[in-house]
Amino acid sequence: MINRRTLTKALGAAAVVTTASGAGIAQADPAPHEPPGRRGRYLIKGGSVVTVDPALGTLPRGDVLVDDGRIEAVGRNLPARGAKIIDATDMIVMPGFVNTHYHMWSALGRNYIADGFGYFAAKRATSTHYEPRDFYNSVLLGLVELVNAGVTTVHNWSNNTRTPAHADAELRAHRDAMVRARYSYGHIDQMPREQPVDFTDLDRVRRQYFPGGTAFDGLVHFGINLRGLSQSTEAAFITDMEAAMGRGLPVAIHAGQAPPRIVDAADYERRGWLGPNVLLCHYITALDSDMEILARTRTPLAWSTHSEFRLGSAGDPRDTLLRLRRAGVSVSLSSDATSIAPPDMFETMRLTWNTGIPWQGTPSATLPEIGFRDVLTMATINGARALGLGDATGSLTVGKRADIILIRTNDVNIAPIANIETTVVQSATPANVDTVLVDGRILKRGGKLVAYDVDKLVRNVKASSLRIRTAAGGILTPPPEA
């Protein structure tokens, strides 16, 4: 996916030379690129810096020094010895976003739903027709879109791992995208409710790809996601959960958006199933007592704002979210699936802020509303902590990995900037993301994706989608001219 032609196109009219590795470097660029896949020494200079670090706060003007993928310094007028300058004038510099719940295998199915043919109907019609090559194309599409939108870490909640070849295809996409991630191996969609998950291939993937705990130069770590009681019998779920916990891997579970209440936090705590290594998603059905237990056991929650409103029939999500915050639960933000919500953290933050108000007639009526800093925290450091990566990413803290984004503030939909944090949440969009570094590697620069052959990727996902729609038939049948 990375080649000289892609870099030449992305860097426009700048003169391009070829290094010994064959990668293109633009000589006219004030911050020349290292060959894709390499980390450089950069001084990101003169931007408005949102560190999400309580000790550093937000700097109206500041610099960030990056060396070999590590944040070396944050401050004013930093020395630039040996560093290539990235001019951040009129830009906001901040940590990349963290998406803690994204079913990436179906990213290419974003437009499969229709009136009267919703998310679950579309998933049932298509999930069995994805071949390994479709998984590769779909996951890579999702990862590249995330980079374009300033998301540098994602939890790939793979809830349709059909064969070993499908798992391998997803992991190849992670290798090629160079994005920080957790890959959570899961069940086969539509498998019988009473059938426990077969962990044979999960163990194979762990041995083959993650013998030291991480894969692909430390960017990807491994986890398990389970069906929960919404898709399995109690006996099957207990079997699955005990097998997962026994492996000592991070576990992720859907906790329910609709009645009945399928997660009893007190029961989970008695069984030893809660804690920082367990991530719950949704949980609109949670009682106040459930929330207190999650906070006490430091069990994080992934909140998919669009999905909670679209699919959450257990009550008003505004009320649930405010009560979760009152209880002290660590809440992160996520997108769920592309046919429910775009994997766009700007839009997710904005919707969370707009709906994060007390609701009269509910227990939330006297609770404080959600602020701009709150949603920025949910979208960055809370997400990193939820994935066990709080020491590596989620804030611009010295010693952490350089997962950094730059947002232009002179674009017509943002200017004029006033409050910096408000600007990020209220005005910015993926189109304003100028530069993205993951682990010190530049993947987007000058508003262009420079590490991927986007044209080829789009051709591939269109071919996959056409084949899947043809196989599914019915409302998804492509027109003859397709």
Automatic annotation (TrEMBL):
Signal peptide interval: 1-28
Hydrolase found in the keyword field = yes
> Which segments cross the bilayer?
none
Please give the InterPro entries that the UniProt record associates with this protein.
Amidohydro-rel, Metal-dep_hydrolase_composite, Metal_Hydrolase, MTA/SAH_deaminase, TAT_signal
Q: Which residues form the Amidohydrolase-related domain?
A: 92-442
Regions annotated as coiled coil: none
> What's a Gene Ontology MF term here?
hydrolase activity, acting on carbon-nitrogen (but not peptide) bonds
Keyword list (alphabetical) reads:
Hydrolase, Signal
- Determine if Disulfide bond is one of this entry's keywords: no
Q: What is this protein called?
A: Amidohydrolase family protein
Q: What is the lineage of its organism?
A: Bacteria, Bacillati, Actinomycetota, Actinomycetes, Pseudonocardiales
